[in-house]
Structure formats: C-alpha cells, structure tokens
C-alpha cells in the first residue's frame, strides 16, 4: 500500500549553481561578459549604460534618451530601423531606470551580424529627431494619465516621494506637464555625457558565438569617451522628510492600495543577505507570514508581499497590497502586527526549514539558463561585486537562525520606523 | 523559415486514462511538472460563471492526505502556480530535479481528493472577489472584455469571461457545486501530465504509475457546447468611464485553434500590429500620429475565437473618424496581397518569438500538454511549418471571411465628461 501521508525525501543543492562568465575588455576599456548556454540558437546582447534618472537634470531625459534610440540614426530613418528589427525578428528592449539604461536585443544567431550593426548605430549615432521626440512623449503622457487612474501606481510613486523627498531623483514623482518640457538638446547632452565605452558594460547570453568578443570589438571598441570625461553624478542629499503618512482619497476606487516601508541600504551593506532572508519570511514568497495571514487566512486581498530594493546610492524596503475598501483598517492593523511579530516571535523549526529550502530552490531557479544568469551577474557588475557575493548569500542561508532574523527585524524593520501610503478609499 | 529545434518527448497512457509526456533536457538542474485539466470557463453553466477559476484556488487548500500543499512544495525548494482560461485549468511546478517525486506526491493527492471545508471556500471566495476588483473593475478599461464577450457571443459559453459574469455569482458558489465539479472534471482521464527537465523518462513513467496509477478513472467529460450562430449584424455599444482617452475595441469571429486557417488568422493579426513596423502601428501611431497605441491579437481558443483590434485615440481625432480609418485599413487586406517581404517579416517574428520565449523547460512542458489536448503533442513541432506554409492568398481569403459585413462587435470606451 502506497504511503501517501509521508513526503518523499528532499535533497537540496550542495554546490554553486553557476559558473563565472567569460570576461573580456575591449580596447577602449568596455567590459564584456559572456554567458554561454541554452538550447536554442539565439543570444541576448545587453548594453548597460551607467546613467539613469539619477543623472538627469530634468525629468524624463534618461527615459526619452533611451527610447528615442530606435527612432532614427544619422544613416537610417525610424521606419527603416523598425522594418529591419521586425524583419530579422530582433526584439529590442529599451529600459531606463534610476541608475542605468539598458539596451537589450534578442536575436537569432543567423541574423546576428546585421542586428549588431544596427545596435551599434542606434547607440552611437542616434538622430534624436525633434518631431519623433514630441510624438513619443505625447504617447507616454497618455500612458502617464492612464497610470494616474491606478491606485497601485499612485501608491508606488507617492511612496517613493515620501521616503526620498520630492527633490531627490529617487523620489521624484512625474507630473503631467513634465512631458512637454523635454528638449532635443537635453537628449543630445545626456547621450554625449554618458553613452560611451568608459561608462558602460556589455552582457551577452545564450548560444554565444566563439568570436563574439571580436564582433563586439569591431562595433563598440573605439575610444569614444567625451572630453573631458565627466560621468560623475550630480550627487543629491537626502532630505529626511518630516511626514510619515500619506493618505490619498480616490472616491471611485473599489480598493485601497497600501505601501508601507522605509529607506534602507543596498546590496553592498554587510547586513544585506540577512535582511533579504528576513524579508522573505515576512513577505517575500507565497508561504510568507503576510501572505498566509492576510490573504490565506483573512481573505482581505488577492495578494500581499514585501521586498527590498537595491539602488546604487541607496536602498529601500516596502510592503505592498491592494485590499478591499471595507477591510482597509483591519488589513493595516494586521500588517503592523506582523512587523512586530517579526522581531518578537521566533520562527518555529519547521517555518525556518521551509524558508531555507524554498530560498535555496529559488536561488537555483534564478540561475537557470543563460538569460537568468545574465540578470544575476548584471546585479554584481552594477554594484562592483564579484561572485563571492552569492557564495556569502548561500552561506548566510545555511547558518542564519530564527534569533538572527528577529535581531535583523529589530534593527531595520521596526514597525515604529515605517512610512505609510494608502491610496483609494 | 527554418524548423526550430525539435522538442523530443516520450508518451505513455496509464490504464486509468492519464496521459503522461516526458521531455529530457540536460542543460538545467530543474524539473518542470505541468498538469493540465481539460476544463475551463466554457464548461460552466449560466448563473454559476467564474467557477472553474474559483475551483483552481480551492486546489491549493489541502487534499485528503496532505494538509499543506504549498508548504510541502516550498520545503522541496519548489515554486508553483496555476491559471484558468476559457478552455483549460493548468497547474505547474518547477523544482530541483532531484526532488521531482514530491511533485508527484502532491499533485496525485489532490487529484485523489480534496479536503473541502466551508471556511476555506468562504475565504477563497473573498480572495477571488478581490482579484475581480483588482484586475477588472478597479482598472481603467479593465471591464472592456467583460462587456465585449456577450456582444460577440450569443449562446456559446465564451460569452462570459473566465473571471465570471459578476462577483455575485462567485459569492453564491456552494459546497455541492464544488464537489460536483471535482468529481466530473478532476480525474486522470480528463488530465494530461508533462514532466520536462533533467529527468530520466523511464523513472518519470515509473513515478507516474506509482502515484497516479491507483486513482480511479472518472466519468466521460461529456462536453457538448452549442455552436455559436454566424453573426450577421454589427453590434455596437458605447460606454463612458473614468479613463484618460477614448479606446475602440473591435471583435470579429474567427476559426478555432485546430482549424487549418488558424495560422493564417494569427498572421493577419501580426501584419496589423505585431512590431513597430506593423501596419496599424506604422500608419496611425508613427506616421499620422492619430493613435497613441494600436493592437491586434487572436484569442486562440479551442472553439471558434475572436480576432481583436484595439486603438487608443489622441484627442484630435473623432471616434467616428478613427473607426472609419481602422476599418478601411483592415479592408486593405482583402484587396491587395501582402508582398513577399512582409510575409517573411511576420513569419520571422513568429519564429523568433517562439525561440526566445518558449525555450524554458516550463514553457515546453506547458506547450506539450496543450498540443496533446489539441490532438497530438507533436503538433508543437509542426507549428513552425504551419506558419511557413501560409501564402499571401491565404491571408486575403481569411481576411475576407473575418471582415465580411456583419462580423463585427465594436465597443467605444469613452472618457466620462466631468
């Protein structure tokens, strides 16, 4: 008779689930990381420029610079570029974040040559047509207006403003008129200042051809640093805000979006790994305390979670959820109760085992395949870390105790130090 | 177009009817475990819509021998989720390959029987009600498809969305409904299992036999759905909401997923709006700057589905004029044949999309189950060829059928005047 009551035995990973990427430097100093693997004949080439909204002197400049790359170069019109990309089945991802701009391209190996030519051209010789810039920003203004109708979006932007202050680039909340204020020269200036070999790195993941480094050298290897080299960031003081809570009434809303958290530190901090594990216990996975209590036991929400975010010059922690308007107060109370419990109620043996095993499997998944590995190595390069960072994480995961978690929660996630944004009804 | 790397697999059917597929991939330390049940919102009865999806939630609330599905899986380093569509309910797990048997243990137990309780049912009804609000009602345009489906479909159950016609019906679900649904649909003969990843096929078949072999085969699925009559008149509706711009939604009936014209129809939607150089995007977003976005896609359902076209309008174009322009642009497909370069372009994009986004072991496991449901898992390996064979004349023929007079339901979603 089959024993259905007892779980089959479980084994966990014992070794590092990754190899170090191959590393190369182009003649102009541009670092290149190659992550070989996968089952299909394609690569993703990603050029990361170390400049984002933190470095701009006017809202939306980094965002518009990144997105306008595909709207025409000195040699090719927007239409030609779009035709070429679509014809070769090349997928372009343009992403401007706070600390970086990422220009990524998926391409089948059989179309790699023309796609790389185009990628280099877009990065090095963008036309930044005035007309296209205005029409792009106008379309984005519509997206912005749409976002203003979403309580979750409002909660996110008001939260960032609350924890960093309205003048800090990490906290700045976009306003509708900002979309009308960007000028062509802002883009040209941003591009000249930050888009060069000395301020970027390249990651290639997938079935990487043997001569990939040479191919990149031909297109990205020339010395193009501006004169004088001035990639230094402006530097912003963080104004500690006096306010701790923002409640925004949205009369038509059916739910309230909640965001609770605070400013902390990034992944280079010695407590980062402990904090990451502590956060997981609280709200970092489906089995977390917040999810089990507020969704699975109370049914107040479709989902609740928490996370820690690393930025180059800072970091923060937040809890996020959307709850029924009628249970808003009850849900808030439970969130604070869980925060307090995190530093006062030790995780039981089974809770710790589940947490550790889950995170170990999750770590393995996060390195599955070259594309996933590329994401993990990008984090390291951005923060000037090496793979020992991940060895340390695995080691912390092995040794951390329930008491360590309570101590970490007491040090960094005390409920009294939290800021709170509620948007909705 | 070149044929993609083949996804090799082995297949066995257990005596109780469970179909088991295995794909081995040595490049990953993981295993993906996908279990598809042949039941979706099209199997619901009027007045009790949204039920298949609510049931999916209940599947995580404990089974006869295992009280804590999620915790057991997390303990094995695994991650799981599920989704429900008009046609299927699909459960999936990824976990370290050496712990694969845990997935078999958990999934077979919940096919064997669930540990139903009133409290769990009541809680999940609340959770789904919040999901309904969060994803459909509290989102700008979130209810557009809820309104469009009953315009396009008169009698087929596709007339309601998977989330359900309204929250009330979900809150009314009772324990008897739950038990009936389980008996009827959650059994081996109504399911397809696929394991892919770093696994030994013989070992997978042995585990399948061990864990699923003694579960009794269920009743015949017995599905008998009414065919939707041919739509002969344009349906239109205008609504106003708290949205920033006017959006047009157009739905036209198309063939079902296994029809020989499916791939040509899919390419019609690609010609219109897949990629920045596609017709609607190039013409109306980039060149004439009348729309901020345009989209086209097929629902891809098993029974005859819908070709959807949507456009978000800038202020300086009137909705009437925009609709006119859109329809005129669509009708070009019935006049001139697309040239070879444009055909190659859309086919190249299909090949690329498949290669980039369906190469994970999980995507392969899901796809093998889906194509097995459609008739043969090996259809997965014949998709590229099916797209490659589409000729310009097929595009025109399919476009003529879809764009025939009367085959259109159109929703204007306007900005409410304050």
Give structural notes:
- The complex is a heterodimer of chains A (425) and B (418).
- Chain A is α+β, with helices and mostly antiparallel strands.
- Chain A folds into two domains: 22-220, 2-Layer Sandwich (Cytochrome Bc1 Complex, Chain A, domain 1), CATH 3.30.830; 245-424, 2-Layer Sandwich (Cytochrome Bc1 Complex, Chain A, domain 1), CATH 3.30.830.
- Chain A contains 14 helices and eleven strands.
- The model of chain A has no long low-confidence stretch (mean pLDDT 94).
- Chain B has helices at 51-58, 69-75, 100-112, 118-137, 144-152, 167-171, 175-185, 201-212, 262-273, 279-287, 319-335, 340-357, 361-374, 383-388, 392-402, and strands spanning 10-13, 19-24, 30-37, 79-84, 89-96, 191-197, 235-241, 247-253, 291-298, 306-313, 409-415.
- Helices cover 41% and strands 18% of the residues of chain B.
- In chain B, the strands form two sheets. A six-stranded mixed beta sheet of chain B has the order 1-2-6-3-5-4, with helices on both faces. Chain B has a five-stranded mixed beta sheet with strand order 7-11-8-10-9, sandwiched between helices.
- Chain B has 418 residues and is α+β, with helices and mostly antiparallel strands.
- Chain B contains 15 helices and eleven strands.
- Classes of the chains: A alpha+beta (425), B alpha+beta (418).
- At the A-B interface, α2, β5, α4, α9 and β10 of A face α2, β5, α3, α4 and α10 of B.
In short:
With 425 residues, chain A is α+β, with helices and mostly antiparallel strands. Chain A has helices at 61-68, 78-87, 112-124, 130-147, 151-164, 184-194, 212-220, 272-284, 289-297, 328-344, 349-366, 369-382, 388-399, 402-412, and strands at residues 22-25, 31-36, 42-49, 91-96, 101-108, 200-206, 245-249, 255-263, 301-311, 314-324, 419-424. Chain A folds into two domains: 22-220, Cytochrome Bc1 Complex, Chain A, domain 1 (2-Layer Sandwich), CATH 3.30.830.10; 245-424, Cytochrome Bc1 Complex, Chain A, domain 1.
Helix share of residues of chain B?
40-55%
Number of E-state strands of chain A: 11
| CATH topology (fold) name of the largest domain in chain B | Cytochrome Bc1 Complex, Chain A, domain 1
Structural classification of chain A: alpha+beta
Identify the quaternary structure here.
heterodimer
Q: Largest protein interface?
A: A-B, 74 and 81 residues
Low-confidence stretches of chain A: none
Structural class of chain B: alpha+beta
């Amino acid at each position: 008779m089959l024993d259905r009551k007892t779980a089959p035995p479980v084994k966990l990973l014992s070794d590092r689930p990754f190899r170090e990427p191959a590393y190369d430097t182009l003649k102009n100093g541009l670092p290149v990381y190659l992550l070989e693997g996968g089952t299909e004949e394609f690569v993703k080439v990603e050029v990361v420029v170390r400049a984002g909204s933190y470095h701009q002197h006017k809202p939306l400049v980094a965002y518009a610079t990144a997105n306008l790359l595909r709207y025409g170069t000195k040699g090719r019109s927007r239409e030609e570029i779009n035709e070429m990309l679509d014809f070769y089945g090349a997928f372009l991802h343009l992403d401007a974040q706070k600390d970086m701009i990422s220009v990524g391209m998926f391409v089948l190996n059989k179309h790699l040559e023309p796609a790389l030519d185009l990628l280099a051209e877009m990065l090095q010789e963008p036309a930044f047509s005035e007309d296209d810039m205005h029409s792009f920003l106008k379309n984005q203004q519509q997206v912005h207006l749409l976002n203003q109708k979403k309580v979750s979006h409002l909660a996110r932007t008001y939260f960032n403003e609350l924890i960093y202050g309205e003048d800090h680039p990490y906290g700045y909340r976009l306003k509708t008129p900002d979309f009308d204020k960007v000028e062509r020269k802002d883009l040209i200036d941003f591009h000249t200042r930050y888009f060069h070999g000395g301020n970027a790195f390249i990651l290639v993941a997938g079935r990487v051809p043997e001569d990939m480094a040479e191919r990149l050298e031909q297109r990205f290897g020339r010395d193009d640093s501006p004169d004088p080299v001035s990639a230094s960031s402006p530097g912003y003081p963080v104004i500690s805000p006096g306010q701790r809570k923002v409640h925004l009434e949205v009369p038509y809303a059916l739910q309230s979006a909640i965001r609770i958290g605070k400013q902390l530190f990034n992944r280079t901090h010695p407590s980062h790994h402990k904090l990451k594990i502590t956060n997981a216990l609280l709200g970092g996975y489906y089995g977390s305390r917040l999810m089990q209590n507020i969704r699975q036991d109370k049914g107040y929400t479709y989902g609740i979670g928490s996370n820690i975010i690393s930025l180059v010059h800072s970091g923060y922690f937040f809890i996020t959820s959307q709850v029924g308007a009628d249970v808003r107060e009850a849900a808030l109370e439970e969130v604070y109760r869980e925060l307090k419990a995190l530093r006062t109620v030790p995780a039981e043996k089974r809770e710790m085992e589940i947490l550790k095993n889950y995170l170990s499997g999750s770590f393995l998944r996060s390195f599955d395949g070259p594309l996933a590995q590329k994401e993990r190595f990008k984090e390291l390069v951005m923060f000037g870390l090496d793979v020992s960072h991940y060895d340390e994480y695995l080691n912390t995961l092995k040794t951390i105790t329930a008491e360590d978690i309570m101590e970490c929660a007491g040090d960094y996630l005390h409920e009294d130090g939290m800021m709170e944004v509620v948007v909705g009804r | 177009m070149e044929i993609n790397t083949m996804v090799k697999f082995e297949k066995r059917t257990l005596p109780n009817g469970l179909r088991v597929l295995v794909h081995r991939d040595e490049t990953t330390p993981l295993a993906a475990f996908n279990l598809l049940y042949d039941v979706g919102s099209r199997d619901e009865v009027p007045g009790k819509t949204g039920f298949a999806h609510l049931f999916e939630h209940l599947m995580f609330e404990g089974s006869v021998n295992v009280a804590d599905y999620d915790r057991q899986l997390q303990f094995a380093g695994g991650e799981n989720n599920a989704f429900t569509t008009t046609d299927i309910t699909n459960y999936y797990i990824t976990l370290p390959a050496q712990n694969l048997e845990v997935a078999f243990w958990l999934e077979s137990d919940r096919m064997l029987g669930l540990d139903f309780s009133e409290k769990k049912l009541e809680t999940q009804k609340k959770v789904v009600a919040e999901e309904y609000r969060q994803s459909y009602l509290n989102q700008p345009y979130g209810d557009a498809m809820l309104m469009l489906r009953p315009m396009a479909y008169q009698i087929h159950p596709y007339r309601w969305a998977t989330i359900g016609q309204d929250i009330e019906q979900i809150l009314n679900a009772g324990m008897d409904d739950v038990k009936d649904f389980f008996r009827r649909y959650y059994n081996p003969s109504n399911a397809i299992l696929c394991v892919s990843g770093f696994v030994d096929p013989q070992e997978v078949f042995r585990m399948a036999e061990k864990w699923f072999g003694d579960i009794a085969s269920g009743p015949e699925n017995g599905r008998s759905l009414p065919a939707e009559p041919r739509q002969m008149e344009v349906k239109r509706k205008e609504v106003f909401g708290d949205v920033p711009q006017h959006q047009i939604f157009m739905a036209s009936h198309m063939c079902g997923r296994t029809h020989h014209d499916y791939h040509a129809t899919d390419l019609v939607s690609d010609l219109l709006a897949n990629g920045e150089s596609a017709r609607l995007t190039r013409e109306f977003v980039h060149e004439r700057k009348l729309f901020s976005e345009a989209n086209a896609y097929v629902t891809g359902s098993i029974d005859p589905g819908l070709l959807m076209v949507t456009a978000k309008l800038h202020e300086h174009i009137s909705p009437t004029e925009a609709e006119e322009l859109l329809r005129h642009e669509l009708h070009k497909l019935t006049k001139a044949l697309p040239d070879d370069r444009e055909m190659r372009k859309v086919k190249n994009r299909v090949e690329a999309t498949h290669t980039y986004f369906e190469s994970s072991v999980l995507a392969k496991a899901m796809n093998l189950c889906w194509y097995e449901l459609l008739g043969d898992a090996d259809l997965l390996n014949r998709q590229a060829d099916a797209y490659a064979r589409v000729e310009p004349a097929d595009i025109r023929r399919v476009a003529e059928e879809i764009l025939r007079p009367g085959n259109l339901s159109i929703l204007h979603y306007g900005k409410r005047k304050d």
